[in-house]
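Table S4 entry, ArnT-like N-terminal domain-containing protein.
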Amino acid sequence: MLQQWNNVLLHLRTNKITWLFIIAAFLLFSSIGSTPMYILDEARNAQAAREMMERHDWIVPTFNGELRAQKPPLHYYFMQLAYRTFGTNAFAARFFSAVFGWLTIWLTWFFARRFVSYGTAIWSVAVLLVSTHFLFEFRLSVPDPYLIFFITAGIFCFYGYAQERTLKWLICSAVAAALATLAKGPVALALPAVILVWWSISLKKYGLLFSRKMLLYIGVIALVAVPWYLEIHRATDGEFTREFFFRHNFNRFGEPMEGHGGLFIIVPLFVLTGLLPVSVFSGELVKKLLTYHRNTFIRLCMYVTVVFILFFSLSGTKLPNYPMPCYPFMAVLLGYFINKVITGQIKVRPYPLWLLFGLNVLLLAATWFLLGLESATQSFRGWSLLFIVPVITAGCSVWYFRKEGLKKALHAIIAGYSVFNFLFLAIGYPAIYQHNPVTKTLHLLNRDEQVYSYQIYNPAYNFYLNKPVKVLVNPAEVSELIASNPQAIIISREKNIRELDGVPIKLLARERDLFETATTVLISGK
């Protein structure tokens, strides 16, 4: 037994990738249940999964008892499995998101190691491991973690088939593509299709596209993905189809929705910011890009990155999570570049590390300033000092680069950002979000009585109360309710309460939403 433990410890001392996977699991799972449900999409998704589970309905997703047509059902299924295992809570809602985060890192490692090199694989993992945005997204109860994993799996497995021509890779790619479609919709099928056709044509691999096996590929995708779409079309008399495909896909691409617009350049900035700190080397990477074009795996990663950034740059609605499926592929590009620098094949100047230092200083100053700007966040201003860790880390990386080269500088970045990501994601972020308006006002609501809202409210109330909230849409309905039940409590936003002049109401609570312009209020009759 002692010898076995010695062998394990020896393996851990000598195997860097094992340590990276352990750190990844630690950063993805630490305290994922500590942060309250408060972000709107998180709360809606978590509650929709619960409503489906309680109705024993595998087809129609609902939120607050009404059809939720924004998303397909894949993430709801995984959340239900976690609810049945761990109970209905925030940890369970986020559990499989973290699982797929770890699996995405492993998948990136596996294919980069198999088809490029060990060095590229290990540095690709490091890029994802230190990305705060990547870790943050995979700690949320949203469909993006499932989408990112299955798009990554589908494209990588297709590459495996193209190289080895074994049927297992083709079947795995088709199943992954179908599941990605059940995670997000047609965009999960259309963009990878464009990428794989472009890549195949660029390499003159026409046999890949016109093989009989492509009929099998399409057939497997249809067999896995189509039945649910047909069944929900039937179950909702076409309402889901109209809402999901036209409003939440075509309209979202054609015009900004919910105020999420922006210039063309904003999407590349999303990606560069999201993959900090290692993305500071992107400028140097682009300079050498044409020389990497000869490697077919690297070429595929280039095409994925370009297509996702270009597509969502053209989209009317722009959000930081939209281009995230390209993160694993961009990580491989950066890993490939870093490995070439470390093995002495190319040289790199130190300015990216100085850029990182400057960005971190600005981020520290901006966080300190912004937290002090709003009354709702002034008491959390001290948490901005967490951002001293990246500043020190970047400073150390500059020093190590000058003394011992890029490898040691990157070791400092991995160590420093691992510490920062743990402190920020597992301690600081949950501590701040404990003070959100939902948590601070929940004690005023009776779980055994009907709760009302006037127009808009935070859906986290549904998750914690586990009951429908009856929505009142005009002042007349509020007045009628107050007249018949003066003790009824109504949730709303402060700006909407101004419409209730003449209605006899009293203010029970007023809480500014964290990092938002809105203010949540609770009112009742006088």
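The longest strand covers residues 505-512.
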